[in-house]
Amino acid sequence: MTPPSGFDAEPTPDAPDAASDRALRPKRLADFTGQIPVTHNLSLAVEAAQLRKEQLDHVLLAGPPGLGKTTLAHILAAEMGAEIKETSGPMLEKPGDLAGMLSALTPGAVLFIDEIHSLKRVVEEYLYSAMEDFRITIQLGEGASTQVLTLNLPPFTLVGATTREGQLSAPFRSRFGIRERLDLYSAAELTTILTRSAKLLNVEADAEGLATIATRSRGTARYANNHLRHIRDLAQVRYRNRITAAVAEEGLTHLGIDHAGLTELDRRILHCLARARRSVGLKTIATTVGEEERTIEDVYEPFLIQGGYLLKTPTGRQITHLGYRHLGLKVELDEQRTIF
Ligand SMILES: Nc1ncnc2c1ncn2[C@@H]1O[C@H](COP(=O)(O)OP(=O)(O)O)[C@@H](O)[C@H]1O
Ligand SMILES: [Mg+2]
User: pLDDT tens digits, the chain, 340 residues: what are they?
Assistant: First the structure.
């Protein structure tokens, strides 16, 4: 399925419209919370490039949806004082699509390709010479009258974002001088993000209210902001525009989010594993809970694994002790199985 617009098209179940997402997006590195090793490396790279008066090296940003990859791509362009052009892997169907974008770049521009793992092989290979030598070849005409034209490009920075770094070929990965992986946020970091968002959304929120949302947002900035927006509506309508722990609690309950931050679908995944009482393949889980394999793997599993509810083993997925307890089930052990 090709998304209608290339960006913000991650399979998050409750992705907001792009405009409200953009409104909360930090514009500079200094406003970007957490991901310390990543921002440290990026700011160093930006400074060095500026000292050399060169474009920034190509950057690959990997990690689950909603952690700030698109935001960082925009920040990098802003920090470099460069323009940014956005597209996504599924939108670039043939080398010609890419040639058009590349030749229209201004010197030093950032070309942001979201979902870069889904680039077609021919488009990917076409990018290689653009990335390495800032040069592309264009084929004019067909058959006997074919002419090949080499076009020099202005130096540019390719910023690629991916939820599936493992799907990138080794030659492609190695062409990015800077490769960074984003991790889930801590509750404290999400509280900082929410404090800023609450100000931008003009809603009053006390520390407990924000902490309640932060601890139940699956380590994901986008979820935290989405929850905040929903709870702001509730606060405006019923609670004089003030978010307390009790208001947050009420709003999160409406959304089907439990005390640990798990959604209805997280719980269905765990129930499926608990019933199986052995390792279960991704395909079976997907069929049982009625969600795409890719979405389960990219969106749901990272948090279930990090939270210690689910384990990935060579034979499939298993529920942990904590997972059983979370569902209020008695842990069932059998001989063949180790439960952690
Ligand atoms: N480190 C951060 N600090 C503040 N807000 C963030 C941060 N990371 C993400 N966000 C917010 O979360 C939302 C989703 O981020 P986005 O960059 O679209 O994620 P991704 O591209 O990784 O899916 C954005 O609206 C942005 O406001
Ligand atoms: Mg994105």
Answer: 333 333 344 444 445 456 667 788 999 999 999 999 999 999 999 999 999 999 999 999 999 999 999 999 999 999 999 999 999 999 999 888 888 899 899 999 999 999 999 999 989 998 999 999 999 887 777 777 888 888 899 999 999 999 999 999 999 999 999 999 999 999 999 999 999 999 999 999 999 999 999 999 999 999 999 999 999 999 999 999 999 999 999 999 999 999 999 999 999 999 999 999 789 999 999 999 999 999 999 889 999 999 999 999 888 999 999 999 999 987 765 544 555 5
Residue nearest to atom 24 of ligand 1 (CA): 25
Which tokens go with 222?
């986008």
Greatest pairwise CA separation for the chain in angstroms: 75
DSSP state at residue 280: B
Neighbours of ion ligand 2 (CB under 5 A): 69-70
CA of 193, closest atom in ligand 1: 4
**Domains of the chain by start residue, with CATH:** 18-181 (3.40.50.300), 187-254 (1.10.8.60), 264-326 (1.10.10.10)
The rounded Å distance from CA 69 to ligand 1 centre is: 7
CA pair distance 156, 134, nearest whole angstrom: 8
List, by residue number, the catalytic residues.
69-70, 114, 163, 222
